[in-house]
Amino acid sequence: MNQERLTKVLDKMSEKKVSQLVISDATTIFYLTGKMIHAGERMLALVIKEDGNHALVINKLFPITEDLGVKLVVIDDTDDAVAVLLEQLDASKTIGVDKNWPAHFLLSLMEKTNSTDFVNGSEITDSVRAIKSEEEIELMRDVSRDNDTAIGRLQELVPEKLTELEMSEKLASIYKELGNSGFSFEPIVAYGANGADPHHETDDSVVKEGDSIILDIGGVKNGYCSDMTRTVFYKSVSDKSREVFETVLEANKRAIAKVKPGVKFSEIDAAARDYITEKGYGEYFTHRTGHFIGIECHEAGDVSGSNHNVVEPGMIFSIEPGIYIQGEVGVRIEDLVVATEEGCEVLNHYPKEMKIIG
After folding, report:
1. Is 240 buried (19+), middle (13-18) or exposed (0-12) by CB count in 10 A?
2. Which member of 158, 217, 218, 224 lies 3.0 to 4.6 Å from 139 by CB, making a disulfide possible if both were Cys?
3. pLDDT digit string (tens) for 230-271?
4. Where are the domains of the chain?
5. Nearest to 183 by CA among 213, 231, 228
6. Going by DSSP bridges, is the β-strand pair 290-292/299-303 parallel, antiparallel, or unpaired?
7. What are the residue boundaries of the Peptidase M24 domain, all occurrences included (predicted)?
8. How far apart are CA 175 and CA 145, in angstroms?
9. Cα separation values, 339 from 72, 92, 343, Å
10. CA 202, CA 325: separation in Å to the nearest integer?
């Protein structure tokens, strides 16, 4: 296991007075072991204990040939997986359980331990993962550089008047050529009024003159995700659409300028939201300003009015204000930023100023 990351988890466990932690989340197991395992409905659990007796409970359908630096406890489909897991735990002590574990595993474990206390251990691993190492930051720079290239090549295809779905298919090929393993999320290509739905599902629509074009895309490389959004226009832009665009662009810039250690995420959200409201479009900004990102496209933590935690160096998150006017136009502009000691570094460098294509 990655000893530096393991030590941070153990330190956080000590701080929270949790002596043993069951980790079932595949991305956190990857974070600690370097091995991505998708076990589906079968038991997969990494047990971390303050006494150092760590264990990975895994089904034999997923053979591990390399040394992960942790004891392997191999089970098969006929075993009582929860009973085997319990053998790795001290039932007399509190058990921390991380997020996303199927209820039938947790409920069964609770039944078998009777009086044992259970606590949500997600904050332990999430808080450690939120602060990226220099190695992780460089991986995020690398995958983001690819995303700059990808969105540029995608914009070059706009004059061909491909459908939204065809654009998405082309993007898959672009990522493959760039050495990315796939999408970090299903890409959003939204023409015109389709862009007024923040999570529009790409369809057979064809771009028309005057349409805004939202391109919200991300890839995966070396286990880390990219994510960015650019909005351009096809052939022409109306005065109202231009005003909406310039408002979103300025909101994006104001929020980025606000990022530095010690600033609350709610204050960053307000920097974008208050400006959009001041310009008369507040009701059309319908989502949070950003989300954390790394091994997963959406990690724990966000940039929202309800998050009063403060920025710390090494955190990576999106800044993505938007305005969505139903039946008319949608505009979103998104960048990833990494918090530094003095402010932040923007990971996306593809131009975001007004652009009319065609």
Report:
1. exposed
2. 224
3. 999 999 999 999 999 999 999 999 999 999 999 999 999 999
4. 3-129, 131-356
5. 228
6. antiparallel
7. 138-341
8. 12
9. 37, 41, 6
10. 18
How far, CA to CA in Å, does 106 sit from each of 81, 82, 118, 299? 11, 9, 10, 22
Can you name the CATH fold of 131-356?
Creatine Amidinohydrolase (3.90.230)
Closest CA to 11 of 57, 56, 48: 48
Q: Which two tokens stand for residue 328?
A: 């008319």
Please give the model's pTM, rounded to 2 decimal places.
0.96
Q: Point out which residues pair with 337 in neighbouring strands.
A: 317, 346
Q: In whole angstroms, give the CA distance from residue 219 to residue 144.
A: 8
Helices (H), 114-261: 122-130, 134-156, 164-177, 239-258
Q: Six-digit token pair at 197?
A: 């739905």
**Is the pLDDT confidence value at 357 over 80?**
yes
75: three-class secondary structure by DSSP: strand
Q: Quick one: which H or E segment has residue 46?
A: strand 44-49
The CATH superfamily of 3-129 is: Creatinase/prolidase N-terminal domain (3.40.350.10)
Angle between helices 122-130 and 3-16 (to 10 degrees): 130
The owner of tokens 């969105």 is: 151
Q: Could you tell me where the beta strands, DSSP code E, fall in 145-298? A: 182-183, 188-191, 212-217, 219-221, 224-225, 228-234, 290-292
For the chain, how many residues are written? 358
Contacts of 210 (CB under 8 A, 6+ apart): 192, 233, 234, 235, 236, 237, 238, 241
> What is the per-residue pLDDT across 330-356, written as a single tens digit (0 to 9) for each?
999 999 999 999 999 999 999 999 999
CB 99 within 8 A of CB 25: yes
Contact residues for 231 (Cβ-Cβ < 8 A; gap 6+): 195, 212, 213, 214, 215, 245, 248, 330, 331, 332, 333
Single-letter amino acid, residue 324: Y
> How does DSSP assign 2-30, residue by residue?
-HHHHHHHHHHHHHHT-SEEEE--HHHHH
Q: Which helix (H) or strand (E) holds 274?
A: helix 265-278
Asked if 318 contacts 303 with a C-beta cutoff of 8 angstroms, the reply is yes
